Amino acid sequence: MTRRNRSGPAALTLWACALALAGGCAPAAPKTVPLSGVVRVNGKPAARAKVFLTPLAPSDGRPVLPSAETGADGTFRVSTFLPDDGAPPGEYAVTVLWPTYAMSGSEEVEGPDRLKGRYNSVRSPAATVAVTEATRELPPLDLRLP
């Protein structure tokens, strides 16, 4: 029985086609604008709050949900496709979830939202913003505990 070598031109063409199909079917990622901001609750930094930018208009390509987590000082940098890459230009509802954290055995787990869902809905966002090519910083999110 003769074994055929599959490393010839036909195999190479097959691999090239497979790679082209894998990368060619997905829409290109939209351009992003670097974005930062700050979350304060009752005037104090909200450490480890989660910030989400939900598009207000339907996407004509790849769905996006830019997000961030605040540092100890309440500041954040938005990420969409890569860390700290920002958000595509557009109009967004900015929602905030500020979970409590507790240890469960040796694991840290998220608990209830300290803001009781008040700013965690597109119907009642912390803010609405228009991100443009010129936007680099979101207005401060000064929230109040319910």
From TrEMBL:
GO MF entry, a single one: hydrolase activity
Lineage top rank: taxon: Bacteria
Name of the protein in its database record: Hydroxyisourate hydrolase
Keyword Signal belongs to the record: yes
Source species: Gemmata algarum
UniProt keyword terms in alphabetical order: Hydrolase, Signal
Cleaved signal peptide residues: 1-28
